[in-house]
Amino acid sequence: MSTHTVGIIMNGVTGRMGMNQHLLRSILSIREEGGIRLENGDAIIPEPLLMGRNVEKLDAISSAYGGLLYSTDLDTALADERYLVYFDAQTTLRRYEAVKKAIAAGKQIYCEKPSATNSREAMDLYRLAETAGIKHGVVQDKLWLPGIRKLKYLVDTGFFGKILAVRGEFGYWVFSGEHQPAQRPSWNYRTIDGGGIILDMFCHWRYVIDNLFGRIKTLCALGATHVSQRWDEQQSPYLGTAEDAAYAMFVTDRGVVCQFNSSWCVRVRRDDLLTIQVDGTNGSAVAGLRNCVVQHDAMTPRPVWNPDIDNPIDFNGSWIRMPTNQTYDNAFKAQWQLFLKHVVLGDPFPWNLKEGAKGVQLAELGYDSWRTHSWVDVPELR
């Protein structure tokens, strides 16, 4: 048995997503398990180099997790041949220049979405990576959530019959920071810093819809800044200039109508922070982050409109929860494992920088639709 050590420059690990999902629950979890075990008995061991701008935060993370190496000098790290992969989880505004520099240094690229703030730069990264002949990928984590994987199983096995429509509800109440600390960083709510829920969430909806319900052909969208006064990490008030909610409709090349509401200004009264309902001629399903419930046509109740009496039907009671017949690991970790196999073995990895650019394109078109109050076509990216 041999070991394939893969050095990874992990830029942005002092942030919430880079720290929790990518470093702790993915890379360090893989290391604790002895690496990614291959069929021939070999193992892929990720070796992280923590990268960021705040040396005090980096030192604290390093000390907490066994003395991990860290640096604030990206140029020196990129010149170090021990590190094959560059990973970027910085704020969106910093990503394009850093990833472009890493491509020029010959690193294999894996980055968070959005891969850039506009589709021109996102496609530029894709072309540069292709020209350089390096491997590249973008995080599309929701495809590995247990609830979405169960939903994909139902689609693939024909449970729905003809799929008619999809309704997605995402979001939760993010405190303004005045009386209770906000659960999201303040830059999320400032346009000048790359904030906005359309840029954030439409990238997700692009790959979810494309992979389950067909390629998005046209859309209409409306954004809103519902809470304009917020307080930052230093308890200083600031004006929220970016949209904190978005309401959109997408139509795919299969004729499926997909409605997705995204909001940081909604109090949850549903089964999960994200629910996706799919209705078809033969049955329906509602998936959350981990679970999925189904209702076949034969088990569908027959409601009668009568507002003069309490409804006699227990609508929730007529749904059946799908069993969990396999073990699902952390969604970010699952994609990391696939990407590292792609780097070491050349296994297929279709979630590349072009797929990431498609998400950025959808966000751009969402802003166009909002600005022009119109339906917008989604052309092929070239």
Report on the structure:
The chain has 382 residues and is an alpha/beta fold. It has two domains: 3-141 and 330-352, NAD(P)-binding Rossmann-like Domain (Rossmann fold, 3-Layer(aba) Sandwich); 143-328 and 361-376, Dihydrodipicolinate Reductase, domain 2. It is built from nine helices and 18 strands. It has helices spanning 16-32, 55-64, 74-78, 92-104, 119-132, 146-156, 197-212, 331-345, 353-372, and strands at 3-11, 36-37, 43-51, 70-71, 83-88, 108-111, 136-138, 163-171, 216-224, 229-231, 237-239, 245-252, 257-263, 274-280, 283-287, 292-296, 320-321, 376-377. The strands form three sheets. The chain has a nine-stranded mixed beta sheet with strand order 17-16-15-14-8-13-12-9-18. Strands 1, 2, 3, 4, 5, 6 and 7 form a seven-stranded mixed beta sheet that branches. A two-stranded antiparallel sheet has the order 10-11. Strand 10 and strand 11 (237-239) form a beta hairpin. The two termini are 43 Å apart. The model has no long low-confidence stretch (mean pLDDT 97).
